[in-house]
Predict the 3D structure of the following.
Amino acid sequence: MKKLFILLGIIILVLGVAFWGFKTWTKSHSPQTTTTFKTDDLEIKVSYSQPQKKGREIFGGLVPYGKVWRTGANEATTITFEPDVVVAGKPLASGNYTLWTIPDPNQWTIIFNKETGQWGTNYDEKQDILRVSVPAATLPSATENFTITIKPQSTGADIHLIWDRTDIVVPIKPQ
């Protein structure tokens, strides 16, 4: 019995080290970053990993059109709102969500999902809280790293999802 516990301990240790190594290796290619925005009446925080273009065709290639994308790399992108907000005209309660998207050439679907803490390939549509559609814009030059920025507006903020020559603007207002 003692040998069984020792063997199980060794297996658990090896799996733990392998998992840590895998996470470290993937994050070296797509570093983790956080974007924050705060005013008196609105607070937004986005945590995501930044994949790189590396000469690849991004949208319609690496990231297929019409399919759910993790909106970054590695773990699912998380987004936090405080207080309740209006996203592209639709209400969303304050809280923590994962951010998913469905890219298309002219319009993207932005998805807020209540499940958090999962790897970016574990999407459960049943956990969706809100879906909104926003237009896709083309940039004059390519951006190498996937980037999420938040720009202030007179009535709130715009979240920009920027990669390659695509800029997706998601308007946010406090409720």
Q: What stands out?
A: The helical segments are 2-29. The mean pLDDT is 92. Residues 2-29 form the longest helix (28 residues). The CA atoms of residues 60 and 104 lie 8 Å apart.
